[in-house]
Design goal:
This protein is α/β, with parallel strands linked by helices. It has 9 helices and 8 strands. The chain has an 8-stranded parallel β-barrel with strand order 1-2-3-4-5-6-7-8. The relative contact order is 0.16.
């Protein structure tokens, strides 16, 4: 299975997400059965996007961009895994942009546990400065890593237009496979575009890509679907 995951970050609102879905539907990309396309939206976009997706012929899966490390309780403003369980089947955790807001490897491990308790697949973002620490924390929490997806996202490549070379990515992915001792899918994210996506997918160790701003343009995202299908 190959994965194409879109991270819309905080760029969209409810109206824009529905326009995107409509435009993608007009382009009518044929998605291979071996390609899983996941759209990770802001929380506020999820209910309406899901409702309209049910009437769409485009086979997409829906994900969130983060989740609370707490369960239900007195946590004003937090979105828990139990809330997300009615809306998504995937969720990003540990993105570097979340870490810059103070999230720790311990927080991420708690988020992963919460998601797995509600049958939501975590997509765990990693970068080399904290990779070893994060994986050790996941093991410390006795998390079944085979139920997770990993995404290697070097901070230097995010939004820079300068992706890492496919060969360098493959070496890091091999290290993640060794550290996790699992057959979990491992993706690459960081300035992925139609011009370079096949360089990454042609590496046997890389199971897919995580795409940021280029996923916001239906025409560009459609190109990525066609190249990976």
């Amino acid at each position: 299975m190959t994965y194409l995951i879109a991270n819309w970050k905080s760029y969209s609102n409810n109206t824009q997400s529905l326009i995107w879905l409509k435009e993608l539907g007009k382009l009518a990309p044929v998605i291979s059965p071996n390609l899983k396309v996941i759209i990770c939206l802001p929380f506020t976009d999820l209910p309406e996007f899901n409702r309209h997706l049910n009437f769409s012929k485009t086979p997409l899966f829906v994900g969130a961009q983060t989740v609370s490390s707490y369960s239900a309780g007195k946590h004003t403003g937090d979105i828990t895994a139990s809330m997300l369980s009615e809306l998504v089947t995937y969720c990003l955790v540990g993105h570097s942009e979340r870490r810059s807001n103070g999230e720790t490897s311990g927080d991420v491990a708690q988020q992963v546990l919460s998601l797995l308790n509600y049958n939501i697949t975590p997509i765990i973002c990693l970068d080399t400065p904290y990779m070893d620490e994060q994986i050790k924390e996941l093991f410390r929490q006795n998390i079944t890593l085979s139920h997770c997806i990993f995404a290697y996202e070097p901070i230097s490549a995010i939004g820079s237009g300068q992706p890492e070379s496919a060969e360098d990515v493959s070496r890091v992915v091999s290290k993640i496979t060794l550290l996790t001792n699992s057959k979990s899918p491992i993706l690459y994210g960081g300035s992925v575009s139609p011009q370079n996506v096949q360089d990454f997918i042609n590496q046997p160790s890389i199971s897919g890509v995580l795409v940021g701003t280029n996923s916001l343009k239906p025409s560009v995202f459609c190109q990525l679907i066609k190249l990976l299908s």
